[in-house]
Amino acid sequence: MDRIHLWVLLVLGLILLVFSLRKPPIKDVILVFLLKAYFSTFFGVIVVEKHLLDYPVRFLGQYFDTSILFEYFLYPIMCVYFYRTSHHSSFFGIVGQCALYTAALTFVEVLYEKYTNLITYHTWTWMHSFVTIFLLSFFVRMLMKLINRWEETVRQRS
């Protein structure tokens, strides 16, 4: 049953990815996606190597100890939607939306931890997930804000 959940999540992620690529600026979407995957890799490896949590059932489990489906695909897609919905928001709007997206992701993670073998907490808790997802999502969002400002400054000088 857990493998079925993984396949359903993969299909859902593919559908969400296709819809996220339908509106410009595609450059921003791709950059957010890649930045999120890049930074979440470090945290995922550290958390699993320190045995704070495990992913007993995962894609390519013989090659990866982390959940590549979450870290390289689903979490970056979620961040793309967060970026899109908060693109013109104020600072407090960004913080509020980040908290809502993080709460939804954390809620789903807790359900999967409780009812499946996709994730097992050892010394990790839902609060750790909430804080790390929030901070990483917020960091990438602010980094994109800086990149866009820098790009606009360069464009104005040209």
UniProtKB/TrEMBL annotation:
Keywords assigned by UniProt, alphabetized: Membrane, Transmembrane, Transmembrane helix
Any coiled-coil regions, as ranges: none
Taxonomic path: Bacteria, Bacillati, Bacillota, Bacilli, Bacillales
Organism (species): Geobacillus jurassicus
Residues passing through the membrane, by range: 6-22, 29-48, 60-83, 90-112, 124-144
The protein's name: CBO0543 family protein
